[in-house]
C-alpha cells in the first residue's frame, strides 16, 4: 500500500458525524425560529402595556438579556460535562430542558412571567449545550483524520445557517397568520426532533468520559497562583473591588448588566494576576496543568478582542430589525424576514471561500491563517455598521429608503461572521489541551455574552445627560450615533486583534 493510499484510508470521515450535524440543523431551526421573531413579538404583543416611547428600548433590553443568558450558561454546561456526566449525557438532558422552554413560550404567549420563564429554560438548555456540541464534534476526530475537522466545522456551521435560513423566512409569516402559539410551538417540535436524532446515534459516538473532580483544573490552578500573594493577588483584589462597585450600581445598570459586568471585571483582573505569577503554581500542580492554564489565558486575550464583533452581530436581530421597520418594503414582507439573508449568504460564502477564495489567495503566496481570517472578519463587521449608520442618516433626514439597501450591510456582516465564527470554533478547540476543551469552548461562548453586555451598557450610557449633550451637538439621532460608535468599536478591536495575533504561538491539541 502506498503512503498516499494509507493516508487516504486513515483520513476517513467518522460515520457518526451525520447524526451530530442533523441534530444541529434541527436545533438551530428551533433556536433561530423563536429568536428572530422575539423582538417583533415583544414590540407588538407582550410589551403593549409599556408606553410606546419606551417599548423599543425595553424590547432590545429583553432580547439582549436573553442572548446574554444563552451564552453565559455554557459555563454551567461545560462544568457539568467535565465534572460529572460527560458531553453526550449533558447535551441530551439539557436538550429536554430546552424542549420544555419552547413549550412554555407556546403556552404562555400572553403571560409575562410564564413567557420569561420559558426564555430562561431555553437560555439554560441552549446555552448549556453550546460548548459541548462543538467540542463533541472535535472528539470524533484524532490526529489521523484531523485534516477533515475544519471541513466538518464548516459543514457544521453551514447546517446551522440552513436551519436559520428557513426559520427566518417562515416564522415571521407563521406569527402573522397563525399567532404566537404556533410560531413558538413549531420550533419546539424541531427541538424535540433534534433530541431524537442525537439519541439515535448514541452507540456510534466517541465518548470522552467525565473527568470527575480534578484537583488540577483551570480554577484550581488559577486559585493556587493567586493565593501565593504578591502583585497578582493585588490585581485580582482590584478586580473584586471593581466588581463590587458594579453590583452597587445595579439600580442604574440593571440586574443582568451589573452582574455580568462584575463577572467580567473579576475574570479580567483575576486572569491578569494569575498570568503574572502562574509559575508559582508549579509543584502544587503538574507542569501539564500549569501550561494548559497559560495556554487558555493566552487565548482569552484574543477572545476578549472578538467580543466587539458579537456586539455588532447580535444587533441584527434587534437594532437592524427596528431600522427595517422604518424602511419601505412590500406589504407582505415582515421586517424580521430580512434576517434570512444572513444564513442564505453564509451557505453561499462557506463553500465559495473554501473552494475558490482561499485557494486563490494561497496561490498568490498569502497564508490564510485562522487568526488572519478572524481579524478581517471583525473589521468587516465595523464596515457593515458604517453602512447601516449612513442608511440611518437617510431615514432620519426623512428620505424613503428601500429595505433593499439593507442587503449591503448584511453582506459585509455575514462575510465577517464566516471569517470569525466558523473559524473560531475550530481554532478554540485546537488551542485547548485535552483537559481543558470544555473550559475553552465555554469561554468562546462567553465572549458572546460579553459582546451583548456592551450593548446593554451602551444603551444605558447613552441616556446620561453628558452623552445626550454630545449626541445633540452632532446633529445626528441617538440611533445613528450608536451605530457609528459600534463601527468604531469594532475597527479598533480589529487593529488590536491583528497586533496580538501576530505574536500568538499556534498550538495543536488534537488527541493522538
UniProtKB/TrEMBL annotation:
Membrane-protein topology: Multi-pass membrane protein
Keyword Nucleotidyltransferase present in the record's keywords: the answer is no
Record InterPro entries: Dipep/tripep_permease (IPR005279), MFS_trans_sf (IPR036259), POT_fam (IPR000109), PTR2_symporter_CS (IPR018456)
- Keywords annotated in UniProt: Membrane, Peptide transport, Protein transport, Transmembrane, Transmembrane helix, Transport
**Annotated TM spans:** 29-50, 62-81, 88-108, 114-134, 155-175, 181-200, 221-247, 253-275, 295-313, 340-362, 374-395, 407-429, 441-462, 482-501
Reply yes or no: does the keyword DNA-binding apply.
no
Its main localization is membrane
Location in or out of the cell:
Membrane
Would you identify the family this protein belongs to, as annotated? Answer: Belongs to the major facilitator superfamily. Proton-dependent oligopeptide transporter (POT/PTR) (TC 2.A.17) family.
Cited PANTHER family: OLIGOPEPTIDE TRANSPORTER-RELATED (PTHR11654)
Name of protein: Oligopeptide:H+ symporter
Species source reads Pelomonas cellulosilytica
